[in-house]
Amino acid sequence: MILTFVGYFLEIIYILIILLMVFQAVFNIRQRLYIWETPENAHLNRAPSVYRDPCLSFTILLPAKNEEDVYRETMQKVYDLNYPSELMQIIAICREDDPGTIAEAQAKIDELGDPNVQLLIYNDYPVSKPHGLNLGLQVSRGDIITIFDAEDEPHPDILNIINTTMLNEDVDAVQSGVQLMNHNTRWFCFLNVLEYFFWFKSSLHFFSKIGMTPLGGNTVFVRRELMEQLGGWDEACLTEDADLGIRLSLSHARIRILYEDEFVTREETPHTIKQFIKQRTRWNQGFIQILFKGEWLKLEKLSQRLLAFYVLVLPEVQSLFAILVPVAIIMFFLVKFPLWLALLTFAPLYCFILDIFLDVAGLHEFLKAHNQKWSWHEVFILLLAFFPYQWLLSIGALRAVYRAVKGSTNWEKTAHIGQHRGNVVA
Amino acid sequence: MTVTYRPTEDQDPQEPGSQHNAGAGTGAGPDDGKDQPPGSTPRLSEPIRRKVVVKPPVTPPSGTSFSGQESHGQNSPASNQKQALEQLPIGALPNPAPLSSNRAQTIEQLRAAALSAPPGLSGVSRPAVPESNWQPGGEQTRRPNTPAPPAPAVSNWQQRVEQAPATSPAGSASATKTREPGMLRTAPGAGYMAYTAAPVETSQQGQGQGQGQGQRPKPEVENGNIILYRTHNFFLRTSFRPGQRQNPLRKPTGQTSVMPRVMPNQGKRIASSETRLMPSVTVNTTRQTRAIPIPAWAEAIMVVISLMGVLVAHAYNMFNFPRFELDEGTYMANAWAITQGMLSPYSYGYGHPPLGWIQIAGWLQLTGGPFTFGNAINSGRVFMLFYAVGSALLVYLIVRRMTGSRSAALLALAIFSFSPLSITYQRQVFLDNIATFWMLLSLFLLVASNSRLKYIVGAALAFGIAVLSKEVFLVCLPAFIYAAWLFSTKFQRKFSMVVFVYAVIAAVSTFILLALLKGELFPYSWRLPWDTRAHLSLIGTFIGQAARSQSNGSFAESWAIWIDNDPFIIIISLTVPAFNLVYGWWNRKHLMAALLLLSYWGLLARGGQTLSFYIIPIIPLTAINVALAVNTILTWLVKVVRFDVVRAVLLVVAVAAVVPFDIKQTGFRFYQHPTSAQEQAITWIRQNVPRDAFIVTNSYPYLDLRLPGGQGVGDGAPFLHAEVYWSVAYDPVLYKNTLQNNWDRIDYIVADSEMLTDFKTFPSKGCAEDSSNCNIINQAMQHVVLRAQFSADDHNSKIITYIYQVIHKNAQPTVMNGQPSGTGAIAQISRGDPLTANERRWSA
Q1: Region B241-264: what's the mean pLDDT?
Q2: pLDDT tens digits, B784-809
Q3: Which stretches of chain A score pLDDT less than 70?
Q4: Range of the domain at B221
Q5: Inside any domain, residue B446
Q6: Is the pLDDT of residue B197 over 80?
Q7: pLDDT confidence of residue B794
Q8: Is there a contact between B254 and A143 if contact means CB atoms under 8 Å apart?
Q9: B657 plus B721 within the same structural domain
Q10: Residues B738 and B641 in one domain
Q11: Is residue B468 pLDDT above 70, yes or no?
Q12: Which of A116, A128, A139, A260 should we substitute to test contact with B (largest number of B Cβ atoms within 10 Å)?
């Protein structure tokens, strides 16, 4: 009697989990395909093709830590943006204990000899990107604040585009596309690149429609007054970008997402699995921080809160699902399910496979947009990498939970070597 | 190439950081010191423009010499600085006390200028800066010890600067390491730190204030770099060149005619902007023809009236004509089995996917059992009425969307729904009717999608249901993929194709998954290691069907029936697609319609078994094709006549011609009643046959004999041993276990001419297990007497049902070797092997 009751209970739990998995997968697919849902959505990502005269001034923050390899080139690329240098304040942000990067930055500053290219060095704690950004914000003078990471390669016209967009449309913040470019250097790069591709091209628009937009870490352009009103970045947070996005949403800022393939900021994937997991850990842990900070609870609509909650706990939920897959398989063989339940068990698998096909389609779209060669060989690797990639994500999520429980909140820096510029992994 | 600049709008051209400065410029320095914690943003107001008139750097630029200590300037030699910074960039010094009177004058002028500026401008953002983010931890506590600045900012600057050279190394060490850098600075002037704050900040704290007033601060220049701003925890510096323009972030005046460096390629960009990769989002939809304005409600009334007509045409005499077919009984029995938790009353043989009769099962649940409308098949026929009317509506809507013409849509509806073939076959409980509806729904969703992904997904699922209702509809998949390609924009096409194709295949694959989960995918005859018992299998059935001969219905036989019923539609069904195929070169929608129809014709003509009702999906597709083609031709005519009403009138005339013609053709279908012969047979059984008799029947009376309340049961007990002849012949559970391969255990055979023909096709050898069973019915037929016979007119022949009784060789044959169930539920009838019966349940 009790045994049957327990059996029923377990069965209901099992069904609920399966339904949750299906819901999550379908929701995820919906998010990834949002931009392709209707033809009208095509215009959401449109960048202006005719630029207005430069009017807004920009402060470009370039926080860096241990970026000797790429920093100098990045500074040059930022300096070379098609915009009057009189309207660009470029602030390289380093900490004093990083003489290598400082030297690189200094050398570039000396070379450029432009007073608008500036170097900010700080010596206090916390040692984190948001802290550096906050200090940078104190001395920034531009109308618009923006961030580029140390390995970024922004499009030369990006400032013209933002200038035009900000002038034409009444927006407070613009998130322009960020795209990892080295899709084929390592096996996990394909999916990592595609993740960015779908996230910036499509998901962010979906979030923006709901009114809860976790922004990306760079190429985000915010009006300086707004940034100051918000009080800068959250220095304790490991993902200050997502936190900023939620706070911008809270303050009803008008956020424009703009992903035109041509104008994306080019980045590179982490170049080792270790780096990759570290990066994921940091992101996930940052999300956990934001979750417990609870600001998202102040969002107005239930849909916004639910979406915020979904986004923040998603990595952990996904890792839970990844753990449950073997459990489901064992259950499937050990327990004799009724036929309909056995069929239902396969529903998440169907969604996973659709995910794979969408990834392949995304890869094709990505390669076409960036004029790269399509290769079936790469598709094959992508297929093989799909599930291991999910496991990597799970490891990142579990590690984040572990670190969050343990209380270690130090900033695990992702190393950059410039793979997207054709550098080879040493 | 002249570019003039004007100051930024929100603020005067101030130095970086000056936006935080409200009070200093207005002489409210002391207050500011109180308002704002010392560590907060420095406030500056005056600086307008840096004019650097400084000597070149004394030491060569060197970035590597940088260190934490240096960053605090405590080690920099005073002499060096003095040398380098004899003259300051003015802009870099917000509130500098001039070293020389000359300089002081300048600064004073600048201050005055700043004061005269609107006060609101520079203070805008100030209150917004929250303390928490700007103020290092130790500051607040130290504040009480900090005397308020006694004098305006200028004097503070002077104080601090004077103390520059005196630096304590200990302080610097702690500055680099301590977490509380605020310890190092208690000076009142701390809050006024600004660009080019002297590197002496810390020393000032140690030595107190009030000394050395009148000295101007020394801007920190080293190695060609100037410190623009410094506080306890960070500083900002940039390169420093003599004579460089020192007012960054200026803005163009708006009178700029040319943009020298800024927009080098604007002209080129404008020229090429047309050719840039723009998303192609042209939707493939047809506009409504606007020549004849008909309000929506009028159209709705017209459609409703048409559908009422369709309903009447299909419903009238529905229970009497056509005769009950074998398949109808099978599907009703299957549907009833679904309500009992099984896929079919006998072993499920994977002949068709179960979704069709799952839908019927839903109908049975909804209407309260199979006998709500008389016998079981009547109930199914009522259900088919909905599919028929729904399909008619969908045909109308599809054509309306594809041509934009309402009259053409009406023509399609008329051709489809009033065809004698439709009126015959769409009344019957066929999976094709169900699948046709879903296929049309899928097509409609594609056509009406406006390239919305939701519609395309819906279309894929609808098509998946169609295929899961009747598997042969899979033959339309290529044409449907083409349709999905056609009706999505280029921008979305890649993803909509992936989603569409995947959703269809995923839906269809559940059928295979079902077989896999039941362990019945692979035929038992392959002797796979895990196969321990005999079972039917998906692949086995598929192979069997592929190899099926035309004995049950060849294309030629069916063709004769179709031509006999409705030659008109058969002829146009073959000719019009040819037109559409050719015209499809110019209008792809025509090509798509033609491909749909031809792919189904291809299936029928391939040479396999073709039953006459396979024509069902061809009828709506023909109607769509005809309407498209006729409308196109009439549009050409309109180009000559230049009067679009002519087109509409001609189409309505065509409708007016088609409907009476079809009704006339239909004729006997409205008054013949072949089912009466079949119902009489059922009634005879009810009255004359003992309830424990083993009856071999066609499948149409199956439910009515087996279930309490059925037409063949009445108020008595159900016939527990009424079995369908195909199963008796082929199901080992029946012929082996129940009948023990003994024809003598059969009591009655209820046959019609169709069955008698089928008996002859039963193989006498080479069938399933051993040859002896194959003939079990035929063997019994050797020993029968005809007990009753009923006949009725059916089309231009007669339907005759015969009831034979087997004359037993041995008295009292024992049929009931199993446990007969009291309730009569099929699921509970043992066929000798209870395990098998159990396994046939829904369990995997």
Answers
A1: 53
A2: 888 889 988 888 888 889 999 988 87
A3: 409, 411, 422-426
A4: 5-252
A5: yes
A6: no
A7: 84
A8: no
A9: no
A10: no
A11: yes
A12: A139
Residue B788 is assigned to a structural domain of this protein: yes
Chain A nearest C-alpha distance from B17 (Å): 4
- Mean pLDDT value across residues B125-148: 39
pLDDT value at position B351? 85
Instruction: For chain A, positions 180-219, list CB contacts with chain B under 8 A.
Output: none
B663 and B798 co-located in one domain: no
* Contacts A128 to B, Cβ<8 Å: none
- Report the C-alpha gap between B496 and B483 in whole angstroms: 11
User: Token digits for B695?
Assistant: 């009856």
- Do B427 and B540 fall within a single domain? yes
Could you tell me which residue, B441 or B119, shows the higher pLDDT?
B441
> For helices A347-369 and B490-517, what crossing angle results, to 10°?
150
Compute the distance between CA of residue B413 and CA of residue B398 in angstroms, rounded to an integer: 10
DSSP string covering B631-643: HHHHHHHHHHH--
Rounded Cα gap, residues B562 and B618, in angstroms: 12
Within a domain: residue B270? no
Q: With beta carbons under 8 A apart, name residues in chain A contacting B18.
A: 141
Same domain, B588 and B683: no
Nearest CA in chain B to A357: B498
Distance from the A181 Cα atom to the nearest Cα atom in chain B, whole angstroms: 19
- Whether B242 has a pLDDT exceeding 60, the answer reads yes
Instruction: Say if CB B95 and CB B64 are below 8 A apart.
Output: no
Cβ within 8 Å of residue B43, ≥6 positions away = B18, B20, B21, B22, B23, B24, B25, B32, B36, B126, B191, B192, B194
- Which among A85, A102, A232 has the least Cβ separation from residue B66? A102
A19 interface with B at CB cutoff 8 Å: no
pLDDT tens, position by position, A73-93: 889 989 988 888 888 899 999
Same domain, B613 and B732: no
Mutate to test the interface with B, among A28, A38, A102, A122 (most CBs of B within 10 A): A38
Q: Is A343 at the interface with chain B, CB within 8 A?
A: yes
A274: closest CA of chain B, how far (Å): 30
Question: For position B265, what pLDDT does the model report?
Answer: 62
Could you please report the per-residue DSSP string of B721-745? TEEEHHHHHH-HIIIIIISTT-GGG
Looking at the structure, do residues B634 and B766 belong to the same domain, yes or no?
no
> Residue range B5-23: average pLDDT?
41
* Least trusted range by pLDDT, from A83-87, B251-255, B834-838: B834-838
Q: How many structural domains are present in chain B?
A: 3
Residue B518 pLDDT exceeds 70: yes
Q: Where are the beta strands (DSSP E) in B218-370?
A: 221-222, 225-230, 234-239, 251-252
Residue listed under structure tokens 């559908």: B307
Chain B partners within 8 Å of A366 (Cβ)? none
Quick check: A23 and A352 in contact, CB under 8 A? no
**Are residues B738 and B590 part of one domain?**
no
- Inter-chain CB pairs, A–B, below 8 Å: 262
